[in-house]
């Protein structure tokens, strides 16, 4: 489903268009089994609600840990969790930035909105076409934030994209591997975020900031 790009009508019309877009996205994501990161009680009642709160707290702390490290002109690599991907992107989307989401046709855009992406300033590019490096280069040139998945680039392609980022001072969040990315979030191992509140010392953070660079962020996020 294509995301509406810019809405040139008045404020009321814009709100109406965005509301209809969100409703359509909710219906599509419900059919696909995608759940946005939101509060509320599920079928398991309080236990499910408590786990959801822990997940939200972990994602919030992940965003806080990533933001000062993910400086303009650089790449962040995120693997193993779509929720963590959106948390990283949402942490750095500025109040006036435009974002391009490319190569992620099945990603949960409502979850992205919950994490901080502004859908009215987000462009969706579902497929890369025949020349992914050129498409990515064009997006990096045009948008302050690019979230990309499904990429197969050579080391030379990556170096050229990094050079463009340094020139434009944009940011690239990659769902997958990126050689020498300065920020790496690798969601593979269980940590305290997935263990439960009663197994974690009071006041201990759910996310150790060092883990953002070393990997090992809890796999109970999605």
SSE blueprint:
Layout: H1 11-32, H2 46-66, E1 74-79, H3 82-92, E2 99-102, H4 109-115, E3 122-125, H5 132-142, E4 145-149, H6 155-168, E5 171-175, E6 183-186, H7 209-214
Quick rundown:
It contains seven helices and six strands; from the N terminus they run ααβαβαβαβαββα. With 222 residues, the protein is an alpha/beta fold.
Globular, elongated, flat, extended or rod-shaped: what is the shape? globular
Average of pLDDT: 75
Low-confidence runs: 1-14, 32-44, 189-198, 216-220
How far is the N terminus from the C terminus?
22 Å
Explain how this protein is built:
The protein is α/β, with parallel strands linked by helices. It has one domain (about 10-215): Rossmann fold (3-Layer(aba) Sandwich), CATH 3.40.50. It has seven helices and six strands, in the order H-H-E-H-E-H-E-H-E-H-E-E-H. It has helices spanning about 10-30, 45-65, 80-90, 110-115, 130-140, 155-170, 210-215; strands at about 75-80, 100, 120-125, 145-150, 170-175, 185. A six-stranded parallel β-sheet has the order 3-2-4-5-1-6, with helices on both faces. Helix 2 (about 45-65) packs across helix 3 (about 80-90), helix 3 (about 80-90) packs across helix 4 and helix 5 (about 130-140) runs parallel beside helix 6. Residues about 1-15, about 30-45, about 190-200 and about 215-220 have low confidence and may be disordered.
């Amino acid at each position: 489903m294509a995301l509406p790009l810019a809405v040139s009508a008045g404020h009321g019309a814009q709100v109406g268009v965005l509301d209809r877009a969100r409703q359509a996205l909710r219906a599509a994501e419900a059919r696909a089994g995608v759940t946005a990161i939101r509060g509320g009680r599920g079928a398991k009642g309080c236990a499910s609600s408590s786990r959801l709160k822990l997940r939200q707290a972990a994602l919030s702390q992940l965003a806080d840990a990533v933001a000062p490290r993910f400086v303009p002109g650089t790449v962040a690599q995120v693997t193993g969790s779509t929720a963590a991907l959106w948390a990283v992107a949402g942490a750095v989307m500025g109040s006036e930035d435009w974002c391009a989401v490319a190569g992620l046709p099945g990603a949960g855009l409502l979850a992205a909105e919950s994490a901080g992406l502004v859908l009215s300033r987000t462009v969706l590019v579902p497929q890369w076409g025949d020349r992914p490096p050129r498409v990515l280069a064009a997006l990096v040139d045009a948008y302050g934030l690019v979230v990309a998945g499904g990429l197969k680039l050579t080391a030379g392609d990556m170096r050229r994209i990094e050079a463009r980022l340094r020139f434009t001072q944009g940011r690239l969040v990659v769902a997958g591997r990126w050689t020498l990315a300065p920020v790496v979030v690798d969601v593979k191992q269980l940590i305290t975020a997935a263990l439960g509140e009663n197994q974690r010392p009071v006041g201990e953070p759910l996310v150790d900031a060092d883990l953002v660079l070393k990997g090992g962020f809890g796999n109970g996020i999605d």
